[in-house]
Design goal:
Layout lengths: L17 H16 L4 E3 L9 E6 L2 E13 L3 E6 L9 E6 L1 E7 L5 E7 H14 L10 H29 L1
Antiparallel strand pairs: 1-2, 2-3, 3-6, 4-5, 6-7
The structure holds ligand K1U and zinc ion (ZN).
Length: about 170
């Protein structure tokens, strides 16, 4: 599960250039088109350390993020992933995180996050390290999720083939 670029450790952004700013704009467009609340650069084929988050009309940009503190307290939330369509599972993660990152002006910032924002930050940060949310499930649940994903992919492919045959 997960194409190669999703399994690689991404490299730091060396400089916040206009090209990076254009990529950020394009990532917000893709995230919103797909009704997502986050998107990491490796999900759109760029193995660099950058992700965006959009929650309740608030937009966040994280360049070279580092989670420098996590709470002992954990919580369970249902997660989905735009790179693993239609699979949702409950994942346990720290409830709160402190993150350092660069903003679009290249300035170093720190924020404390909790709730859904903390959740999405951790999910997206995992993408920068080649980790998918299913990797955080226990083995049995992970196997089940992978099986369901493969079945859905197979069915989608069959449907496309049938459509193609009918046309021909
Ligand atoms: O990185 C991604 O694949 C985007 C992902 C972010 C995310 C959602 C939920 C929990 C953690 C991280 C999505 O936006 S999936 C689609 C979605 O909007 C969603 C799915 C489940 C619960 C809430 C929202
Ligand atoms: Zn994801």
């Amino acid at each position: 599960m997960g194409e190669e670029s999703l399994r690689e450790k991404s490299l730091p952004v060396e400089e916040v250039t206009d090209e990076i700013r254009r990529l950020v704009d394009a990532m917000f467009d893709t995230m919103e088109e797909k009704d997502g609340i986050g998107l990491a650069a490796p999900q759109v084929g760029h193995n660099i350390r950058l992700f965006v988050v959009g929650i309740e009309s608030q937009r966040f940009i994280f360049i070279n993020p580092e989670i420098i503190e996590t709470s002992q307290e954990t919580c369970t939330m249902e997660e989905g992933c735009l790179s693993i369509p239609k699979i949702y599972e409950a994942v346990v993660r720290p409830s709160k995180v402190r993150v350092q990152f660069l903003n679009l002006e290249g300035k170093r910032k720190t924020i404390d996050a909790e709730g859904l924002l903390a959740r999405v930050i951790q999910h997206e940060n995992d993408h920068l390290n080649g980790v998918l949310f299913v990797d955080r499930l226990d083995e049995e649940l992970r196997e089940e999720a992978i099986e369901r994903f493969n079945k859905k992919q197979e069915n989608a492919l069959k449907k496309r083939l049938q459509k193609y045959k009918r046309k021909g």
